[in-house]
Each structure stands twice: as C-alpha cells, then as structure tokens.
Write a structure and sequence with these properties.
Largest sheet: 7 strands, mixed
Number of helices: 10
Number of domains: 2
CATH architecture of the largest domain: 3-Layer(aba) Sandwich
Number of strands: 9
CATH topology of the largest domain: Rossmann fold
CATH superfamily of the largest domain: Vaccinia Virus protein VP39
Radius of gyration: 20 Å
Bound molecules: S-adenosylmethionine
Length: about 280
C-alpha cells in the first residue's frame, strides 16, 4: 500500500485496494477477524498515513481497540484506554442475561468492570437502574467513568461493604484463566493484555471465589450473580456457590458447546447471614 496524506483517500478511487491490502496484512499477522478489524481501522483512520501506522502497530500484536480507542459492545461504542482489558464479544451474552434480570429502578454492581462494558449495557437497557462498577486498576475505573459508568478503583466490593441498598444483580468477569494455561493464550494477548486481568490462579477461580463471597453479602434474596467462567469451572465452583447460599446455578454455552458462564440465585437476605457490610 502506498501511504498518501490527506483525508479524501477513501474517495480517491482505490478504496477497494486499500481494504484488500489491509485485510491481507492483518490475516498474515495472525488476526483471526482480519476483515472486521480492517473495517474498524478503515472507518476510524483520518487519513492513509494514520492507517499505515495503525496497521503496523496491529501487526506487532497491539489490540485493535487500543489503537482506534473504541470498541463496540452490545451495540454501544465505548472508549478503550490502552492498557485496559478489551471486552470480548462472548461477554455480550452475560451482559444481556444480566439486563434481563435487572428490574426497573433496580441496583446492580459490576465487579472487575474493566472499561465498564457490562455496566454500560445495563444502564442503557434499564435507564432507571443504579449501576456501579469496581475495578482494582485505576485506569480501568477511569475508562469506565468515561463510558458513563459510576466506577471506583478498589479491590472487589470493598467500597460497598457499608450498609446500603440491597443489590438485585451482581456481574463479574473476573480473571479466570488458570495460571499454567496463560502460555497457550494467543501470543498478542500474552504480550499486551494485563496479566492481572487474566490470571485466575492455580485453577482459575481464586478471585472468582472471592467474588462469590462478596456477592452473597451484597445481593438481596432472589438476587442474581452472573459469572463468566470456562472449561468445567461451573462444576468446580458449585460447592463454593452452595456454601455462600446460592441455590440455583444455570450454566450457558456458546455455539461450540463451550461453557461461557453461570448464573446463580441468592437465597439471602443479603445472602449469607452474618455478613459484615
Ligand atoms: C477479564 S477482565 C474483565 C473486564 C470487564 N468485565 C470486561 O468484561 O471487559 C478482568 C478485570 O478484573 C480486574 N481485576 C483484577 N483483580 C481485581 C480485584 N481484586 N478487584 C477488582 N478488579 C480486579 C482487572 O483489572 C480487569 O479489568
């Protein structure tokens, strides 16, 4: 591709050539969604020189949303700060399930909120609700706020332990990759994405178990906890859910039959009695 300055390059008569070249380069660099990524770059690049610089960064493995600064999640275009975990398409299913469980004027907490994608979807779908996000990474919390989500930088639900309204829905895409499986993640994920967003400890559930305990203190009776997990983690997690007073655990799967998440109902009130808030 020949890089030429100016913003009229899309109309310059060689747009098809530019698209084809971008798709080929991204595919050669190992991008599994090369056409979609090329389309995102082409729609956001102000000129061809910028496009060329962006493609070079992507060829090095940098996540596409860090380069363009945005990602689309459940139809919402959201800001993405470089260094913050990029929400995955698969997580949209969890977000939609959570929105369906959140009542009008209800209250939801999105633990490990990242850029605030799930929380932003909940707020968009149930505008009368109160939704807050928490992330240990101050960059993530700031990005979530930029996406319109009231968010704080903290360890899980630490800022929510004082008495407050009982919560209807808790969501969490906590890190859940077992430590020894980090090395089989795509190389660009290993190279760029923050380890604290991925590493779930020996069986992947170290932080998820803490989320279950925190959620049991926050949720009202019959409130719902939705967790993203994979592999056989629904079965591994079942005793923890039962211990913390969750009586229903419904798993869901993707089109390939792979586990994507679990929804569990709290028996409350504020679940597991004796909780210190
Ligand atoms: C897999 S990412 C998911 C982010 C977001 N929910 C999403 O789906 O895009 C996990 C997030 O958990 C955050 N995190 C890790 N440990 C945490 C903790 N102890 N308390 C709160 N957030 C934590 C990371 O900073 C990261 O943003």
């Amino acid at each position: 591709m020949t890089a030429t300055p100016g913003s009229g390059w899309r109309e310059a008569g060689h747009a098809d050539e530019v698209v084809a070249a971008a798709v080929a380069r991204l595919a050669a660099a190992g991008c599994v969604a090369a056409p979609e990524e090329a389309a995102a770059f082409l729609s956001a690049a102000p000129d061809e020189l910028t496009l060329e610089a962006w493609l070079q960064r992507r060829e090095q493995g940098e996540p596409q949303p860090w380069i363009t600064g945005t990602v689309v999640f459940c139809g919402l275009r959201l800001h993405v700060t470089p260094g913050v975990f990029v929400p995955r398409a698969q997580t949209q299913d969890l977000a939609r399930r959570a929105a369906a469980l959140l009542p009008e004027q209800g209250c939801a907490v999105d633990l490990c909120t990242g850029i605030g994608a799930i929380a932003a979807h909940l707020r968009a779908q149930v505008p009368t609700s109160h939704v807050v996000g928490v992330d240990v990474d101050p960059r993530a919390a700031a990005c979530a706020r930029r996406n319109g989500v009231p968010a704080v930088a903290a360890d899980l639900a630490a800022p929510l332990r004082r008495p407050g309204p009982a919560v209807d829905v808790v969501t969490a895409v906590a890190p859940y990759v077992p430590t020894d499986e980090l090395e089989v993640l795509p190389s660009d994920v290993q190279r760029y994405e923050p380890r604290h967003a991925l590493d779930g400890g020996a069986d992947g559930l170290a932080l998820v178990r803490r989320v279950v305990a925190e959620a049991s203190r926050l949720l009202r009776r019959d409130g719902w906890l939705l967790l993203e997990v994979g592999g056989d983690q629904d079965q591994v997690l079942a005793p923890t859910l039962a211990t913390h007073g969750f009586d229903v655990a419904e798993a869901w799967y993707d089109d390939d039959g792979d586990l994507r998440g679990v929804a569990a109902r709290a028996t409350g009130p504020r679940a597991n009695s004796g909780a210190t808030r």
